[in-house]
Design brief:
Helix content: 40-55%
Order of helices and strands: HEEEHEHHEHEHEHEH
Number of helices: 8
Largest sheet: 8 strands, mixed
Distance between the termini: 73 Å
Shape: globular
CATH architecture: 3-Layer(aba) Sandwich
Mean pLDDT: 90
CATH topology: Rossmann fold
Number of domains: 1
Strand order of the largest sheet: 1-2-4-3-5-6-7-8
Length: about 280
Amino acid sequence: MKPSSRVNAVLFLFLIPLSTGLNQLHEQEITLSNTRLHLLPSKEVNETYRIEVSPPGSYSDYLKSFPVLYLLDADKSFGMARDIAGWLSWAGEIPQIIIVGISYAGTTQEWWDKRSRDYTPTRDTSGIWGSKWPLAGGADGFRAFLKTELFPFIEHTYRTLQNDRTIAGLSFGGLFADYVLIVEAALFNRYIIISPALAWDGKCIFRFEQDYCGVRRALAAKVFTAIGSLDEKDIIESWRQFNEVIMSRKYRDLQWSHHMFADETHISVFPGAFARGLKTVF
């Protein structure tokens, strides 16, 4: 063996075991600290939900109770929302809150289908997004799950401030949040509504709001709603129209803020909009 070959061989034999050993020594699964998972069966929806809970840093102080934020689409957004809220509360920009993420076990496709079932109040007879949502129209069942099953469970298990709840939702989740605001606003005190899919079913949310305003003149809630300037035209236009309608009603006890984020898409707008929403509604 030539001298250079011997050196290469020695280096190869030395480096490979060392590298492998370091990987084996340090490799471990990363988990979110201070988080808890509950599996909660629902009779209202015939579904077992994965409920992910992140108490705030000072939860160990047994004399304190906290507001609760209920987060839709937690399969995708729980870790991000938890970290954003944690940063803001650490900086003193919002109070410390409990984050409750509602998610689904199973594949991405199952999550995609089940969220369409839970977050939409009707089937999309207008066909604006085609016929790819066969389970749609179950928002009332999901609303009943929140009210009669999830809220009692969280408020029994964790130290929560009585009737201090916030909801945050994106896209179909934003549609659901707007729907709840119209039909049963008292379920939440604060609403963070991002990229809401208000074009759903021929803008059915406008019909629900028209029915509501005919019998009530008050709407007690703090609302922040946002969208990205690069979202789909139909979504942007329906969002703008809904803002105009709501503000024209001059509902008593309603604090309504809206913002369009430049150069953000339907999805990329979420982190900034969620942070702005927290600061606005709190």
